[in-house]
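Continuing the series of single-chain predictions for the mutant panel. This is the parent chain; the variants come on the following pages.
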Amino acid sequence: MDRHTPKQRKRNMQAVKSSGSKIEKTLGKALWKKGFRYRKNVKTIFGKPDFVLRKYNIVIFCDSEFWHGKDWETKKFEIKSNQDFWYKKIERNIERDREVNLQLKNEGWTVMRFWGKEILKNTDYCVNKVESEIKKKHNK
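Parent structure:
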């Protein structure tokens, strides 16, 4: 049983952003400050990555822990209401992430994924990973 009324649930779900989230803004500002120029949410690239660095053929996704199933095998037992719906939804998201990664790699992109908390707590680490990937590509 849901703890919220249908009206409250609707309001909560409408507040979930697909782009322009706090984690995207945090990483975007840090990348820009470091001098990396990017495009956001490019619809022409499969999976609509959060950031695209075309010059280096790098795509970056900012994944929230809940929606993309971080530690899913242990965390899924924390969901108490509407389990069938959430299990199916999150497991499909995980599967879609794998499909997107595979297709983009086959198209020659380097795919980088960062968890939301990783971005918020250790932004420099994420930017350094992007920078080291760029240096690796530059040295080839």
